[in-house]
Amino acid sequence: MSFKIVIMDRIHLKVLVLFIFTGFLRVKIVRANTEVSRKVVHLSSHVILKCDISEKKRSKLWWFDGELLYFNYINTHPIEGVSLSENYSLVIQEVMFQHEGLFTCTCEGTPNVAYNLSVAVIPEVTLSFDNDTFIRMMRHSPEIIVIDPREPIEITCLAIGSRPPASLTWVVNDEDVSLDSPNVLDVMYTPNKERPNITDSTSTLHLLPSGDEVNVSCQFRGMEFISSNVTILVPCGIFDQHFQADVLLSEGNWFNNTTEEWTLWISVSSSVCFFVLMATFVCGLFCGR
What we know:
289 residues; Immunoglobulin-like; 2 domains; six-stranded mixed sheet; 3 helices; 19 strands; membrane; transmembrane helix; transmembrane; Ig-like domain-containing protein
């Protein structure tokens, strides 16, 4: 009985020493002037956080936002999807929002490396147009529209599902449009209705195109470069060519039917005119005699 009590006392003593030791390390981590690496990763990606520590070192620890994760290879604070490799690197199998925070690896009380992990979501960028500001979308190319040059147009750019909120940049003929420009309207950020922690961004461009052709692009310049583009053609030579071609494409059946009717009408008219002329010629001969 006394032997069991001695064993239990030793276990309690070790646990107590561990908590005192980790508490001391926590204070030391907060005070240490360690360079923190900012690491931005995609949602659901696979991440490895390296910690180069010699196997001869006795105490190695991983921390997450001040909570001890691993004491050597003992998991003291399990987090879903987080594990430890043989070389003491921290492995996150599938990154989730709950993994955002400060990961710190220490060696014998001294911080070795620290990572400030942020989770990013790349948006889908699309353009939409006010129906009153353009004539029609070209059938042969969805990226080309034709407009009435007398009226300004409004183009709306929507970045669906981003984290952090997407900052959108308008580019007109290879030149950035300042966000402070009076032509950039209604910049809004709203929570995504279907996914938590995700934001939708909206920006509207007010534009009066000049020249024959204007290239407009709405760009997301985040972890990845995403762009949605449109080429605006205005009525000046190019308009006639493309618009007439589009009319023929969109109304081809009507054109074919009309052509057949006109061919028949011309044929009948020609026959009638021929007989009328012949009758007039014969009458002229008889009257002359």
